[in-house]
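Changelog entry: the O-antigen ligase domain-containing protein record was regenerated in this release. Current contents:
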Amino acid sequence: MVALIFLVSAPILNLVIPYSQAGGNFLMKFHPASWIALVLFLHILQFPAANRLDAHYRNAVFLFVFVCVLLGLQGKGAVMSSLIDVQITPAILLVALSRLPLEQARAAIALFVWIITLNVLLVALEFVLRTPILPREFVEVIFRPAGLFGHPINAGLLFCCAMLLLTRGAVGTFARRPLMLAFLGGTALCGVRGPLAIAAAIFIVNVIKPTLPRRSAIDYFLDFGVLFAVPIVVTIAYSVGAFDRILSLGVWEESSQSRLFIFDALDWLRSDEFWWGIDSYDRMEELTKSATGGRYIENSFVFITFAAGYPMALLASLSLTFLQAPALRRSLLFAMTFTLAAFATIAFTTKGSSSAGIALAGYWIWRLDYERKHRVQSSP
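Regenerated structure tokens:
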């Protein structure tokens, strides 16, 4: 499932079937990993919950299923298929991981990190060639690489998730430090301001006060050696034009401000559209561009409100928050990443891998805390 979710991304599926594009058979709107998740969950339901993590993630799955059933009854098939892929499938994956021994679960987490490492190389290649490897559905004035994941913001968010996992020991000590620097550089090449700020915060905090304590002189040498390498990497990135888009737009320009004022778009809805969503695709696209000054909505809550109505947006948001609540309480950096994804992107509502990466990061943060407390309680 991990390999399918992150290697068979939406742009790759679109080469074969109309996965995230308009038209096509309804059954083609589901990721292959979602079919595996369905069979896996039906199998898991035959057994009692193994631990608190298992029970929590099961309850989250049932909440998401309830939301999708309501969407199906309203005839919102497109929104329903998206939520199955980006919320139910990752939640089922977490149920399965919760039943594995810690080291087996760590292997799945490490697989995700190595796939994201592959994407660093693809992002660097795209940046050099100034052309996307996979077809895209949008055109930018200043090209930004994304690799496997279709959009630079998706790639940037996944780099942040991989960095969070590195701080929790997803891979060995010697690989951890260089990969942290590589993911930070990859985020810079993507030219995405929000994820770059989060990635920089994760990097700095990990050097100043790492989550995993330093146990030898070599750990200090590696950490501060990587820190000294940062100015070199930044200088190289600046010289090759990685910051051109950020410098040309600035930190707080119209695109950034649109995230803050996006809720004003709700005032454009009629009363029936506010409660039940917009039925016409053409009206939704026209209203979206009018309400945002020609831009698309980049807020998951507002996007679902437009598509399915305010009650469904509220219920879906509460379900998602419930899924990640344990991790949100345990890591401020994860909470920042989650908030950025929810309020500045549509990662939790459109087909892509970002939501699964965030789910894995939240799971691992809670899993390690759970294992630590369990060892303390069972220790003589």
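The chain has a mean pLDDT of 86.
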